[in-house]
From TrEMBL:
GO MF annotations in UniProt: ABC-type transporter activity; ATP binding; ATP hydrolysis activity
InterPro entries from the UniProt entry: AAA+_ATPase, ABC_SmlMolc_Importer, ABC_transporter-like_ATP-bd, Mo/tungstate-bd_C_term_dom, P-loop_NTPase, Transp-assoc_OB_typ2
Stated name of the protein: ABC transporter ATP-binding protein
A GO cellular component annotation in the UniProt record: ATP-binding cassette (ABC) transporter complex
PROSITE patterns: ABC_TRANSPORTER_2
Domain of life: Bacteria
Keywords, comma-separated and alphabetical: ATP-binding, Nucleotide-binding, Transport
Domain ABC transporter: 2-233
Length: 340
């Protein structure tokens, strides 16, 4: 549905993004993920029409839209600040775009109320001023207003970032539910990895104006194509080449330079004096309690390499500081990268 082809975006002589290529399929929840300054919001703004590519094409349904006005692109926008009118009622905020288009009152009323029902806004809430609503309710109003004109595409630029952590988590499920019910192709910008993994059909990971990888959440997490994706998404332990040679002597690693493994792919047990394949002795340093699990921190006394493991503690893996611990690595889960 949306094709970004060899797009470059410049600010004066500065090239912010270059040679960006990806496709968004109809009905997808497609997330732009990356740290601050990575280019994710720049890419969204270019698709929405706030920025014009200096090279390349942006297409919707195979039609180049580089020179198309913002209002003619069929994109509803939800900004980080929501950009709602604080002196207007919820109803009037949602109806604003329809009134500008001079739709008749009956059409406006029907559209406002059917959208309000989808996002669980009551008739009483429709009559309230925006300033009387909670952050979560304001976010629902912003989405409803963006959808009032029946756009084909909904674009959201970090819409949850101003909310507290607990509310952000609860609203993720609501966002996905609304997107499915409205059946709208959604472009979503976030720096929150967990948010991206739980919401998205596919994710585009950006870093310093470069597109690092596009894939499903499972592909991005389990099969990162670059060192940046591996370290930015989730937690990873960096291993040395010599350590990998010890735990995986039959693995050909000569052409690789960097090695990582996720905490959940390392397990610990009591040192019984017997080391099997893919096992080493580490010293236990400390633990962090997360309610559902522990994170154990260990060190290899010889190389001084530190690792963390994700543990569901049992009688077989309770350790004291300084205790020698048997550590087993799932060597098939080690991520290998060249030239890093």
């Amino acid at each position: 549905m949306i094709n970004v082809e060899n797009v470059q975006i410049k600010y004066g002589d500065f090239i912010a993004m270059d040679e960006i290529n990806f496709e968004v399929k109809e009905g997808e929840f497609f997330t732009f993920l990356g740290p601050s300054g990575s280019g994710k919001s720049t890419m969204l703004r270019a698709i929405a029409g706030f920025l014009k590519p200096s090279k390349g094409d942006i297409k919707i349904h195979d039609k180049v839209i580089n020179d198309l006005e913002i209002e003619d692109r069929g994109i509803g926008m939800v900004f980080q600040s929501y950009a709602l009118f604080p002196s207007m009622s919820v109803y009037d905020n949602i109806a604003f775009g329809l009134k500008v288009e001079k739709k008749d009152k009956e059409f406006i009323d029907k559209r406002v109320r059917e959208l309000a029902k989808v996002v669980d806004l009551t008739d009483d809430q429709l009559e309230k001023n925006i300033s009387d609503l909670s952050g979560g309710q304001q976010q629902r109003v912003a989405i409803t207003r963006a959808m009032a004109k029946k756009p084909e595409i909904l674009a959201m630029d970090e819409p949850l970032s101003n909310l507290d952590a607990k509310l952000r988590k609860s609203l993720r499920g609501e966002l996905k539910k609304i997107q499915r019910e409205l059946n709208v192709t959604t472009l979503y910008v976030t720096h929150d990895q967990e948010e991206a993994l739980t919401l998205s059909n596919r994710i585009a990971v950006f870093s310093n104006g470069h597109l690092e990888q596009v894939g499903t959440p499972k592909e991005i997490y389990e099969n990162p194509l670059t060192e940046f994706v591996c370290t930015f998404i989730g937690d990873s332990n960096k291993l040395s080449k010599s350590l990998v040679s010890k735990i995986a002597p039959n693995k050909n690693i000569s052409e690789y330079d960097s090695f990582y493994i996720r905490p959940e792919h390392i397990s610990t047990s009591v040192n019984d004096g017997i080391l099997n394949e893919n096992e080493m002795i580490f010293e236990f340093e400390s633990e962090d309690y997360y309610g559902t699990h522990y994170i154990y921190h260990l060190i290899d006394k010889e190389s001084k390499i530190k690792i963390s493991t994700k543990e569901y503690r049992s009688e077989n893996n309770r350790f004291k500081k300084g205790e020698e611990v048997k550590v087993r690595f799932d060597i098939e889960k080690i991520h290998l990268f060249k030239g890093c």
